[in-house]
Amino acid sequence: MKLKALKAAFPHTIPVLLGYLFMGMAFGILLSAMGYAPWWSTLIAITIYCGSMQFVALDLLAGFFDPLGAALMTLLVNARHIFYGLSTIEMFRRMPKQRPYLIFSQTDETFSLHCSTTPPEGVDEGWFHFFLAVLDHLYWIGGCTIGALAGMLISFDTTGIEFVMTALFVVIFVDQWQGTKQHTPALVGVAATLVCLVIFGSQSFLIPAMLLILGLLTLLRPRLEGGNEK
After folding, report:
1. 95 with 130: CB under 8 angstroms?
2. What is the largest CA-CA distance in the chain?
3. Contact 114, 137 (CB under 8 A)
4. β strands within the chain, DSSP E
């Protein structure tokens, strides 16, 4: 049963594999350039497992020790996961065995897979989604480890390397756009984000944008669900 679920899940994770390997390598290279041993990159990938926060952590590691500031920054950077959690409550309730790890391993890309994929007939839903999450996590750990080892052995000019995260989000957005006929949620997300970016600025737009998107999609939910049924 588990092997069947693993085989069914793997093809859906290939886009994440390509993105996470390169994005994880970028993190590993940057951490190595700061003088940290490769095992630190692996440990951070296993325990923190949050691409955007890991890149922010590079600045925190280079600055003064400020646990309160680090906690606040982590909350702000990862606030969007509140909405991910709310969206997957009902799904994860059906998967009691896998639920703890599914909650821990929720990332932007894994959340996207949970919402956009369903297991084939005859494949257990819980193990299918579990392996989606496990595979993504393994890709991230592998990328961070490879990057750290490469950074230790080879000198890199790391200027602009953090752009891989932006590139990955663009690829995921395009893949989601092409994979569904209903583009209203995507358009709402883009429009709300641009409005909040103009109003609040690049340093403070994320949480207002997420709140606005949540409100708009809640209002549009009956229409969106009705359209999906047709």
Report:
1. yes
2. 57
3. no
4. none
pLDDT in tens, 7-22: 999 999 998 898 888 8
C-alpha to C-alpha distance for 188 and 137, rounded to whole angstroms:
29
CA distance 118 to 179: 13
pLDDT tens per residue, range 69-109:
778 777 777 777 777 887 888 899 999 999 999 999 998 88
Residue type, 108: D
Taking the C-alpha atoms of residue 26 and residue 58, their distance in angstroms, rounded to an integer, is 12
CB 157 within 8 A of CB 36: no
* Identity of the residue numbered 122: G
Structural contact between residues 56 and 77, judged by C-beta atoms closer than 8 angstroms: yes
* Contacts of 28 by beta carbon, 8 Å cutoff, 6+ apart: 38, 41, 143, 144, 145, 146, 147, 148, 149, 150, 151
Residues 205 and 211 sit within 8 Å (Cβ to Cβ): no
Phi, psi of 65 (to 5 degrees): -70, 115
Q: pTM score, two decimals?
A: 0.73
Alpha-carbon distance 32 to 23, whole Å?
14
Amino acid at 149: L
177, with CB counted inside 10 A (0-12, 13-18, 19+), is: exposed
Token representation of residue 52: 């955007």
Of 144, 50, 150, 170, nearest to 60 (Cα)?
50
CB 156 within 8 A of CB 29: yes
In three-state secondary structure terms, 50 is coil
